[in-house]
Specification:
319 residues, Rossmann fold, 2 domains, 8-stranded mixed beta sheet, 4-stranded antiparallel beta sheet, 9 helices
């Protein structure tokens, strides 16, 4: 079986096809191949991507197909990256945004950075993710945000412990947008044995505040997921908002935010900081004045990635 993805684009002479090829150890390339007998050893690179980067395959950590059972028996899939460092410094759950998106067997810079710095990484495709089936994608609507998709993530941590891949108390979570919201949800609801630290990036904290301050064109999506506006489903919005449960936090917390974010505005941070201060919960904030929804600029990533590594290492009792 070919690792990663091979996507035929157009037929060429000799029965070959022009195709896009990528995996966790293969940057996206344009290749000539036989899609009916996909052997990477026979692919001919057209873009010659390896001539244009300083990385080699040995610099990249391969993704493994990892599966576990969630709270209601549903099978969940994710991509596991095992660090070459022995012993591992800890484990990080890297949660994709959306939630209508999915983690793939591809080169993800942040994940590769964590693995290169001694952390195992799991990127779960919780219910609501795309790429599996329509029913799987739509199943998140049964509970709305903050429902069983969060159990899918937490049970991924549990499965890693049971498999001997992760240690209790040495698992953290991070992600951007809905991944940031999920990071918030995990740190306020999940025992520290499973989730000991969280670094939410541009994540919703109060779904009512988020609804009121986000771009107007995004509000119908919230209504679809939550069964109406906040005034129509107030209890659902309250229960799904991490801000209302920050008193439960006993793990470590680093809040990351782009100060020009129009989707998940800084109002989410202002609101949750008041709640954290009211309950005397310790936390740190890393804010970027020149970022919007997500931290994307290369000079900021040079600050963010090492800061996240240092945060998780300290949270897990390392250096």
């Amino acid at each position: 079986m070919t690792a990663g993805a091979l996507i035929p684009q157009a037929p060429v002479s000799g029965g070959r096809w022009l195709a896009t090829y990528y995996s966790s150890t293969q940057p996206t390339d344009l290749v000539l191949c036989d899609p009916f007998h996909p052997d990477p050893q026979t692919f001919i690179s057209v873009a010659r991507v390896w001539d244009k980067v300083r990385l080699t395959r040995d610099d990249l950590t391969p993704a493994e197909d990892f599966r576990w059972t969630s709270v209601d028996g549903l099978e969940i899939q994710g991509w596991l990256y095992r660090t070459r460092t022995t012993p591992a410094r800890g484990t990080i759950l890297y949660i994709h945004g959306g939630p209508t998106a999915h983690a793939t067997d591809s080169v993800m810079a942040e994940v590769q950075f964590y693995a290169s710095r001694g952390f195992n990484v799991l990127a779960p495709n919780y219910r609501g993710s795309t790429g599996f089936s329509l029913s799987y994608r739509e199943s998140i609507k049964e509970d709305g945000w903050g429902g069983r998709e969060q159990d899918d993530i937490a049970y991924g941590a549990k499965a890693l412990i049971e498999a001997g891949i992760a240690e209790p108390g040495k698992i953290g979570v991070t992600g951007t947008s809905y991944g940031g919201y999920s990071s918030w949800h995990q740190i306020v609801h999940t025992p520290t044995e499973w989730i000991a630290a969280a670094a939410p990036v541009c994540g919703m904290t109060d779904l009512i505040v988020d609804y009121e301050t986000t771009r107007p064109d995004l509000r119908p999506y919230s209504e679809e997921m939550m069964g109406g506006r906040p005034d129509q489903a107030p209890e659902k919005y309250h229960k799904a908002s991490p801000v209302n449960f920050v008193q439960n936090i006993s793990g470590q917390l680093l809040i990351v935010q782009g100060l020009n974010d129009p989707n998940v505005t800084p109002d989410n941070v202002h609101t949750v900081r008041k709640a954290l201060d009211r309950h005397n919960i310790e936390y740190s904030v890393l804010a970027f004045e020149d970022e919007g929804h997500g931290i994307l600029r290369p000079h900021n990533l040079k600050t963010l990635y090492p800061a996240l590594v240092d945060f998780f290492a300290a949270a897990f009792g390392g250096e």
